[in-house]
Inverse folding.
């Protein structure tokens, strides 16, 4: 049931599924560990090759993530996938590296107001934390990848506009500190396609191949248009969440990660290979639904189904 | 309450509102004439400059459109807007021209199966009808514009794929017959951004400045991405429907015109001027709601509202 190596090798874009972390930490209910594992199995079976499976944060803040190490351990049993976890600080990084994740992602807010609300640190203090985490990686798990996700890179519901120069300066500082990749997140659903093109072009001009994923939200319906815009300027990794689960609890009014099903459909329809099998991806909603009964799931493709003749010519 | 001439003059794209025709003919309920007029007034007040207000078809098929001439008469009282009507045949064209519309739009299916289902004519027979309608225009109302909308141009739920060569051949035939513009409609919500770029580029190569509007659906969530793709290759007129009302009753499984509110928001956020005032556009949902109680309206922007600080810098 693992993705075929052929499909993975031919993929032109990487869909990085964030539902088990970003999605689950945004809902009130806590999914049982066994249910999380079944869901991750279904995501792997659909061909997703990079999955953010947990967040290493104190259980008193996010009880939904108390089983992070167990979930990572299970995810690691699948060959060929990249197991990611989010870590907001050095203690979390230590736990994630000890659990054996392939990649950690560090959130750094581009907006000072969001940084204080989300991690209770200024951006400069957060950069110090990033340096500490990178030192820890170097000393304890040098093969582990480290990605920084610059949140609120396109605007902030707390402070309003975020200066593009500051986004680029932060990205450069993270790369200077040793980060392997720096991606841009539209945490608050304020991005538009022109801005997405401009900012990712500037990012690539500044940090070259270390420019990372586009993490877009669908708050005002522009999620897919923004992903298309990012693709147009060379972005090849896209974060999304099955059923659109998730958002950011500390950005008031923000909601709705890009729906993985719709994003994969857009790329596959365009002839841009994702390595993901759409019928299996749609089937992966079942374990999600079973593990989170009553939770609203989103997505246009799941409502309507695949177009007539889909897959026949492929 | 009419749009300011300055806003109209600076607009970089034309949003052609199709709700009063495409939307209303797709719902079961019939909106009262006075309610239609109030809704159209609100659309004009929001700055929309082209509105498809009615369809001239026999009332026994579409009772929702029985008051077409009255609605056109009212719409014509607004200076500075283009009043459009859809006409499927010569009799409808005669009535629309007599009512004094500025522009008629003729639907020609690119798919033979859809043509037979929608107007009960083959495509060749429909081209003959187009020629008859163009002769009628020349003889009775030469100042009236005639646009052909090639429906199912991106795929058909009845026959599956539609050959791009046939779409282009039909467009050329319509222009040869004297049509002022030929647009492409994703009647069935099957288009993807790569296809949209390719087909509109081919259309422009074939018929130059007579290449018309992009009429996209949001069936699988790609509506805005497809509009962005069309914009990228030079399309400057976009059909959309307030609240996403509408679809095509003869294309099973198709639903959901692009939502005007979200489309205008995308362009304005990008700095592409539409001439439309977003708060007034959102207010235009009220007369729609009042005239069609209980009907589902769509749109992400209306759910979430404008971002913090919107319009302050503009």
């Amino acid at each position: 049931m693992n993705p075929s190596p052929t499909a993975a090798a031919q993929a032109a874009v990487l869909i990085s599924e964030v539902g088990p972390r970003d999605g689950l930490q945004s809902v009130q209910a806590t999914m049982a560990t066994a249910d999380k594992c079944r869901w991750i199995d279904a995501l792997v079976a659909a061909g997703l090759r990079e999955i953010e499976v947990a967040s290493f944060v104190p259980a008193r803040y996010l009880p939904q993530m108390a089983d992070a190490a167990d979930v990572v351990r299970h995810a690691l049993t699948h060959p060929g996938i990249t197991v990611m976890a989010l870590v907001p600080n050095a203690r979390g990084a230590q736990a994630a590296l000890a659990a054996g994740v392939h990649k950690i992602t560090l959130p750094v807010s581009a907006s000072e107001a969001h940084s204080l609300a989300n991690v209770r640190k200024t951006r400069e203090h957060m950069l110090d934390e990033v340096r500490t985490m990178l030192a820890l990686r170097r000393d304890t798990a040098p093969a582990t990848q480290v990605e920084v996700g610059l949140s609120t890179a396109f605007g902030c519901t707390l402070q309003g506009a975020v200066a593009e120069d500051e986004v680029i300066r932060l990205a450069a500082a993270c790369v200077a500190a040793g980060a392997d990749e720096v991606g841009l997140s539209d945490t608050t659903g304020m991005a538009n396609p022109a801005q997405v093109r401009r900012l990712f072009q500037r990012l690539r001009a500044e940090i070259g191949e270390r420019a990372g994923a586009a993490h877009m939200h669908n708050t005002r319906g522009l999620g897919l248009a923004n992903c298309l815009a990012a693709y147009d300027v060379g972005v090849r990794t896209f974060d999304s969440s099955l059923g659109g689960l998730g958002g950011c609890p500390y950005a008031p009014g923000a909601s709705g990660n890009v729906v993985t099903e719709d994003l994969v459909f857009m790329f596959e329809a365009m002839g841009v290979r994702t390595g993901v099998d759409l019928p299996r991806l749609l089937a992966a909603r079942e374990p999600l639904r079973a593990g989170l009964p009553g939770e609203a799931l989103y997505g246009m493709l799941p409502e309507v189904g695949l177009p007539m003749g889909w897959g026949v010519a492929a």
The two ends of chain A are 20 Å apart (CA to CA). Chain A has a mean pLDDT of 93. Strands of chain A lie at 14-17, 50-55, 82-86, 103-109, 145-151, 181-185, 211-215, 237-240. Chain A touches chain B at residues 155, 157, 160-161, 188-190, 192-195, 218-222, 224-225, 227-229, 232, 253, 255, 259, 262, 265-266, 269-272, 299-301, 304-305, 307-309, 313 (CB under 8 Å).
